[in-house]
Every structure is written in C-alpha cells, then in structure tokens.
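With this grant's support, we have settled on a layout for protein records. An illustrative entry appears below exactly as we store it:
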Amino acid sequence: MLKSKLAKAISLSLKPQYLVMTLLATSTSVFSSEQDVNKGVTEDVQVTRVVGIKQTLTSNIAQSTMRSEADLSTVPRSVQVINSEVIEQQAAANLSDVVQNVSNVTEHNNFGGTRDLFKIRGFEANVYEDGTRVYGLAQDKAVIEDLESVEVVKGPESVLYGNMSPGGLINLISKRPMPISQNQVKMTMDEHGKQRLSVDFSGPVNDDGTVLYRLVGVFDDSESWRDASDSKQVFIAPSLSWLVTDDTTLSFSYKYNKEELPFDRGTLAVLNSNGGWDFLDINKKRLGTDFSRQEREVHKFGFDIDHAINDYWSMRFKARNYERKSSAKRVHFYASSDAAVETYNPPRAPFPVDLYLEDKTDHAFDGNINSYINGSRQSSNTQLYSWENNIEFNTGAAEHRTIIGVDYTHYKEEKNQSASASWSKVNFAPYAEYALQTPNTHSGRFDYYTDDPSQAAYPDDMYDIKDVNLKLTEYSVFAQDLIKYGDWSFVLGARYDVFEAETTETWDATFKANAAAIGSPQTNSSSKSPKEKNISVQAGVLYKLNRQVSLFGNFTDSYLPNQKFDSIAKEWVEAQNGRQFEVGSKLSLLGHRLNLTTSVFRTDLDNVAYAGDIKGSFDVYKQKSQGFEIDGDYAITDDLIALFSYGYTDVDFVDAPDSVSKPVNVPKNNASLWLAYQASHEWGVGSGVRYVDDRAGNRRKGYDYTLDAYTLIDAAIWYAPDFADNDLKLQLNVKNLFDKDYYTAGSDSTQSAVYLGSPRTISLSAAYNF
C-alpha cells in the first residue's frame, strides 16, 4: 500500500531530528514539491528538503482544510496562508494588519476596538485558534507575537468545524516548541507612545530532545494616537511537547492574557442641513471619555495526544478549556439635537421628563451629542473536546486520505448589566428620574463644538439592571475524504450536528421592585431553543492539467443557529443556511516563481435575521454574494519577492423589507501588494500598497452614508549587522506613509458610529536572537 510523501513528512515531524526540516519545507512555494531534488539522498530526507527558490511569504501547507497538514496544491479550495516572515516585515500590530494581504477580507464592527471581527466575501468571518472555535465573549484580539502563521479559508467549512458563517474562517496558528534552542527578545516603540516588549524562548528540555518547550511573553504599556487611549497588556504562553515514543506525542499549552484597553467607537455620521451625511472631524479627540474602558483576563488551557497507530492510521485527542472574566464601563454616544427632545409624561408620572432622543434621520446636526454609560461584569467558559482519526489507504489506483472524528463543545456565559443614573440611556431615563430621583439623567450630553467629553469625570452612580446567562451545547460527528486518482483530486465530506441553547434573564431585585413601583413591571424569563439538528455536506474536484495549471470547483454549505425567538410570531427563527459554488485555478508559472490562486464564487444565505420595527419581532430575509479574486506571490528574483491580491465582491440582501439597503463594510474592490527586497545579508527593504473601495456604512436605507475608498502606502527597512553576527535586527516601519484620513468600518447601528483609521505611524523595533 502506497504511503503519500506528505504523510511521511508529517510522521517524520514527530521526531526532533526532522522537525526543523519539516517546518522549513512548509514555507516553500506552491508546487515546489514537484521540482527535481537530489537523487542521492534517502526518500525520508528528500520529502522534507527545502528546494527551489527562496520564497517564504506564503506557505503551501495548511492545517485548516483537513484539520491536519494538507498540501494545498491538491485541495479544491481557495486558501491563503500568511506566515511569520511577512508578519514581521510589515510590523503587524494586530490581526487586521495581517489579513489585509488577502483578497475579499475586510474589517467589520470591532466593538469599540476590543475584538477581531472581519468579513470574508461579504459575510462575517469566523476566528479560530489552532482549529478551535473562539466563542462569544472570548473572541478578543489576537496576540501577534504568538502566531506562527494565519490561514484564511474562503467559503463555508461547516463539515469540519460545525456552525459558522458561510464567508469562511481565519485560523490562528500558534507557535509551538522547537527541537533546537532559539531565543529572542524584542522591543517595539512608535511615535505615539507604544512600548511593547516580547520574548520568545524555545528548545529541548532534556539531552535526548524528547521534551521540548516554548515560552512566549508580551509586556505592553502604550499610548495611542487617540486622546485618553492608553492600554496595558501582560501575555504569557508556555507550551510543552513530550515525544513519549516515536509514535506518541503529548502536548500541553497554557495562555494567560490580561488587558486594559479603551472602548472607542470613533466618530459619528451626522445629518447635514442639505439632507446628506457628514463625518465629524474629531482628529485625535475622543467622543467617548477617559473612563470608557474594558479590563479582561483570559486563561486558556490545552492538551493534545497525537498517536500513530500504524503507518496508515494516526489519531489525535484534543481538549481545550477557556476561562474569561471582564468588566467594562462603555460610553456610547449619538447625535441628539434640541429638535429631537421629547417630553415623557405618562398619566401616573409625578412630573414630566425630557428625553434626548437619537436624531436618526429626522433633524440636521446642531452640535448636541448625548452620551450614556453601559456597564458590565462578564465571565465565560468554553470546554471543547475532539477526537480525530487520519487514515490513509488505497482502493485500486485511488489514494485516500480520510479524517473521521467527533466534536463536543459546551459554552457558558454570564453577564451582569448595569447603567449610569446620570449618564442615562433614553429608555432608562424615566427610571433614573422617578425611581432613583436623579437630578439630571442626561449629564452625558455635551456640545461638540465647545466641550471636550474625553475629560469628563466618571459619575460613579452605576446601578445593576439584570443578569443574562447563556448556555450552548453542540456535539457532532464528521468525515471527509481527500481522494487522489492520477491527475484528479476529489474531496467529499459530511457532518451531523446537534445544537441547543438556553438563555435566562433575571432582573436585579432592587431594579425590579423600583420598576414595578413606577408602573413598569419586569418579569424574569427563561427560554430554551429547540434542539437543532443539521447535516452539512461538501464536494470538490481538482484536475491537474499539467505541472503548471490545475483547475478546481467545489460545492460547500454552512449552517448557523440564529438563537432568536420572535415573541410576536411566537416561534424561533430558523437557522441560517448557506450554499457556495466556486470554480477556480491554481497556477505555477515561470519555473514555479509565479504562483496564483484564482476563483469565481457565488454564495447564498437564507434566514438572515435582524430585529424588526416592532419590539420582539425579527425581519428574516436572504443575502447573496458573488465575485472574483486572485491571490499570489512572485519571486521576481531570488531576493525580490512580491505578495499580492485582488478581490471583487458584489453583495446584496434579497427579499428584504423596503427599509433595508445593503450589507455593511463590504467593498466592491480591494487589493494589496507587498514587495520585499533583501539587498544583502545585512540590509532589506519592503514597501506595500493597499486599496479598499467605498462601502456602505449602515444597512438601513435611511442611513445611506458611504465610507469613502482609500489607498495607503507602507514602507520598511531592516538591518542585521555583521558585527553582531546577524543576531541583532533593527527595523524601521512607516505605516500610512502619506498620512491619509480614512475610515475602517461602520458600526451598523442607528447611533451611526464610524471607526477611524490610524494616521502615519513610524515605529522602530530591535530584536536580539541568542
């Protein structure tokens, strides 16, 4: 029975003496495994040897498409891998800086700059960490120093990963222990006050190299270009690999992350006197406040067992436990002109109350902005267990690489919601006035032209509103087969999921009593969703015309529970179901120096649900997306390498209410180019350009403002001097070289918050390896 070269490379990588060569091999160019190699070496060494051109900005090996290492040249999917070299060259500060290199991936509402949220092909992306879904509250921001690479899979992957959006997934591949000692200390600073120290230590623990360790640490105490936006972070991530035998490896990991960071909604889109929209020019000023912040602490525990049962069958057991706690005081704001003030005076009210309503689309902006404070104390726990079996076998001339497994996930979330009596939201203003007897429930109101809200004092009058608890449980069984038959490769897969959720809402006893006393009784509630069962399938085919050209096509589907109960229709909204059809090509031209993945796609999603005009109701409609994209790399010379992408997406809602326009934060065109030139073994330079087309900032027709297109230029230069044996590396980066003003995303809310892009930023880093 014939064993594939890739499988041999993977099995060899379990042994310390071959691990380094295997990792190097994963960063060679597309189709490089087809080039001639030295016939004088053994086959085991031959499969891991680095051959061909010096090209390491992308990788042709990915973990996401088979839940284990797979050669992308045989997989009929569009997948891009950005590895640590391009992350380092571009001095990526966050995940957005990384995925900007990939077509049709754009920034989405990032919840005040506290989360990594993106769209792929017009739909919300799913962020995974080493193949593990990051649920709910734990979906924070990636720690770049902990990443070995980032994989972007376009289109649904429900067969392997369960419930998800049809856009695709972003999989963060963490650094793992290495068999040789390598240590780095790095310091990064920028002109706005960034101060970030990171360490990365790895190597064998014992003499025979059967126990390997890695320790990644980050210590940050930084200022931002925005006023009152300082942040702090401590991140520590030790991991250990124990090669128990040649066939068995145990892996342990732990990640601790503690952050204090601002909650910053950016600026506002406001209605002007001509009926159009303007964005408030706030520059560095914050419309929020100094105390609008969030603190969080995360513990992530991981345990893996990898065992090769024989030459053709290997299994992995994976366990994860994520614990997260956070607290926040978030300042939200909206335009509220004098013309929007209404008087609230119900029959039993002791006195009338002025309510400073959102202008929405009714009145021109007159400078008045109302702010309110939402507080929260939150905790969550994610438990995930999976058992995977990778089996290789032949049926006649067909070679099979099959993965069969089961997944179990349990997620629990607890939230305590609170509000400020004096910086009150409109719907709580009567409670603050009547029940709490607050003199001025709208103390957060200010004049944009004369006041500086960022320096406002914290009112210190928060009160508890209610507790909301959520439990999710999902268990599933899946199978996928990658079949190679001559020049043909096929993928067939299916998954069966069972999903259920339970939500409880418990009002604070004091709040409940006071609300009842003023004629607004509140009732505790508990709801359990019906047990949803779903079958996901996918099929794909790739045909290798020759050593330079392969054609592929696929059909994939997705499902995502809405978890929404329509209290008007008295029914649960059905789960979202997506379908994608995609055809494309994988090209390796000019002696394998120019490598391209191109694709044309069409994706349809049913049961998109948004809150309706009547409280408790939901509008349910469809969304479609179609487009074209190209991603590639080009070794112009051995020392000059280009990484480039272009994407076109046309996205619309279908059968939507008249009040709905277009999905937000989806540009029709986006493109990127990064050039890296290694002038000598000491000096190197890089430069890049990225373009993002204009985008809808709000999905509602009444809020028809558009975020303008923008083009940004970046540059870098690095120096590893001979006098330090090239172990010291100094790097200077300039992002947004020409200091362009731009907007990254809209919040898609009636409050019309819009996120600001960073101005020109000069940063300097120094890394020492020993």
About this structure: The radius of gyration is 27 Å. The longest helix spans residues 16-25. The chain is about 5% helix and 55% strand. The longest strand covers residues 368-395.
